[in-house]
Amino acid sequence: MPAFRRTERRKSMAERRPSASYIPPVIPPLSGLEKPNSHSLNMDQCDILILGTGLVESILAAALAWQGVNVLHIDRNKHYGDSCSTLTIDQLKKWSMEVNAGRMAHFSDAQIYIPGGKHNNTFTSKDYGVDLCPRVMFAQLDFLALLVKSRVYKYLEFQSLSSFHLFENDHFRSKLSNTTKEEIFTDQSILLQTKRALMKFLKFVLQDNADESKQELLRNNSNTPIEAFLKDNFRLESPQTDELIYSIGLCNAKGTKTPEALARIKRFLVSFDVYGNFPVMMLKYGGPGEISQGFCRSAAVADSTYKLDTRLVDFDPQEKIAKFNDGSSVKINEKIVVSPTQTPKFLAKNYAELEEKLQLFTVTRLTTIVRNDCKEWIAENETSAIVVFPPNSLPTNNQYSVQVLIQNGGSGVCPVGELIWYSHTSEPNSAKAKEDLESAYTKMESSLIRESEADLEGVLDESDFTVSHQGTPILVNSFKLGESLQNFLPKKTLDIVCKIGYVQTTYINPDLSNVLLDKKQTGNISSLTVKDSSDILFLNMPSSEVSYDGIIGEVKLLYQRITGSDEDFFDVDFEDDDEDYSQAVASASAAIDSELAIEDSDYDPSHHEPFGANEMEL
Amino acid sequence: MSFAPSTTSVKLVLLGEAAVGKSSLVLRFVSNDFQENKEPTIGAAFLTQKCTVGDRTIKYEIWDTAGQERFASLAPMYYRNAQAALVVYDITKPASFIKARHWVKELHEQASKDITIALVGNKYDLVADDNDSDDSLRKVSMEEGKALAEEEGLLFFETSAKSSHNVNEVFVAIGSKIPEAKPVTEELGSRPGNVGRIDLSGPALRSNLSDCAC
């Protein structure tokens, strides 16, 4: 029987390799037309084939396409974004199953929890857009500049984020990081001496890097942990240093080397007041997943071909013919770029060989959607906030910081009145990482409950002593008795819509040292050559970094490997004769005059033509 | 608010089978004589065109599919916040009409509920002269189109991008069906669309980017 099968199959091989230009001679009747995905790729050739529509791949596709490279861009999933998709709850469920079935390389251990049944926990899956890899955008960053240069910003909506909270000694603080220099001086809780030291340090960070004394100090401390550097040179100690390092700097762990930590702190400081009184922006409707879609659209405008739900099943390196699961074959003139989660079976061995040369890092994530609007933590007119649990701040004695990104319904990622908490840590031990994340979740939960209960103070009276089902009296308004007594009461919990945790691995170092542009980009997967097949390029899984730092470095590296140079990277002469752009330029110069460019919906539109006033324009 | 109340901006998306003339329709609309715009701009994220309807101006922000419809690879971003859609078919190709039904269904699933949809049978120029002859190229009758439009509550037009027949009429009709935009100041909280929106007035502000201190 096997032999018989084999001859059968051999016959059908020809059918599985139809000529690439195959077009049905007659348009088939109704059947098939209702399913637009039934078409196979009817193209003979392309220059570059890209597997996966994640952020790096999508930017790369657009960059190549605008230089006239013929790109075929596919994804095995039915949605855009690959490892950094923005998913609905239904898609998340399916994704978790894929992860746990081992079909999603570098992801493992997906746990999804949706409490209640259909009656107790009603939600519309489509109302949610959960990022697999959420990020914040610093206003002063090469990434934002790229969004402008590529015009992809036109597809996106930006919102400001100015609340950075630091959790310490069982309390949330947000002093330093969301205040201006002036406010540091008027803050009564900081000693004058500390204020002076802080100002001296901030001045040092913002000082020109070409300054000789600064250079020397940096040289002498290239391996010094930032904590020691701050203590020895600026007499700064905890808690101020924690804010500088973990909140402002968003460092992952203790002992971050001084140059890296300073770069991170500077990133925050120079991003302030670029567009307004905030350092960071968030995207509406989802972060990296949304940007991926924008770049894919840009690439499509530049003539790239897109097909989702499609896999590469074979590639003949001599003939350079790629075969897909829809039955089509396409000649690949140049190279194939492969996202690790999309690696076809026949390349698994090549990928594994490369992996042996690299150090693996872990990112553990816990994302929770809760029915609470958390007004206390999010600044007025904003929709998101950052909460950081520095090392050793949690009962689990966390060794790495836990960074939490909070977005409410105003950001379009969930219904109004709800929140998404994205937490992650780069703790290498995933079991420990999960404990840390759960602990951080519990802290936020109890803090939130405490705060919302406090809101009820004065509203309740004696009638609030209620009787439970068991007949025991419950003191509802016990918060009046003080915080400590609350612990004796049955614990209230937040109303959870959905909770999902997963572990991801990557070859990008959490300090980004192996992908940043100005560093040597070695020791990451995009810099390695596949043995016997130089036409195949792999790229990295997303890093644990909470910002978009390091993304462009990787894209440019791949771009350079494909085209030989990154000089013409997005060097496109867009003919922006359209009035929006001239307006944008005009408003940009107006903003320079005022040195303040925040423009929310209350912005006086007199600088604008009517259309620009309610539009997100650069 | 000194917000010019007479201008409403409308995101309009195009849908339809490949080669039914979606782009041509839009090009005809944006380059028509009564408009001042010229050729489409290279790299423009979307085309824009103003259109006067009664006493107000509608500014269309027109999203072409950029070929992403061929394999049903349109991203959620495409449908999001679209206030109007043109579902285009070719009146000489019955398959494209069937596909139009699919796109209408897709819009009902993906787009906002109050979207204004116009069903457009294009390439009217091919049948304009021979409406009564037996060997007419017309394969989808006007009645079929009308029936679908009525059934689904769509606007309906037969157009020719080539001769510009009915092209402006489509956009004027959509414009008059689009509700007037609410003043932005109203209900800030309940309209998530406007919470803390930033106008990034040009990174040219600080162009010498250096994200590293060392």
Automatic annotation (TrEMBL), chain A:
It comes from the Eukaryota. It holds the Pfam family GDI. One of its GO terms (cellular component) is nucleus. GO terms for biological process: small GTPase-mediated signal transduction; vesicle-mediated transport. GO terms for molecular function: GDP-dissociation inhibitor activity. Residues 1-22, 598-618 are annotated as: Disordered. Belongs to the Rab GDI family. This is Rab proteins geranylgeranyltransferase.
UniProtKB/TrEMBL annotation, chain B:
It holds the Pfam family Ras. The keyword Transmembrane does not apply. GO terms for molecular function: GTP binding; GTPase activity. It comes from the Eukaryota. Keywords: Nucleotide-binding. The keyword Nucleotide-binding applies. SUPFAM superfamilies: P-loop containing nucleoside triphosphate hydrolases (SSF52540). This is Vacuolar protein sorting-associated protein 21. It comes from Australozyma saopauloensis.
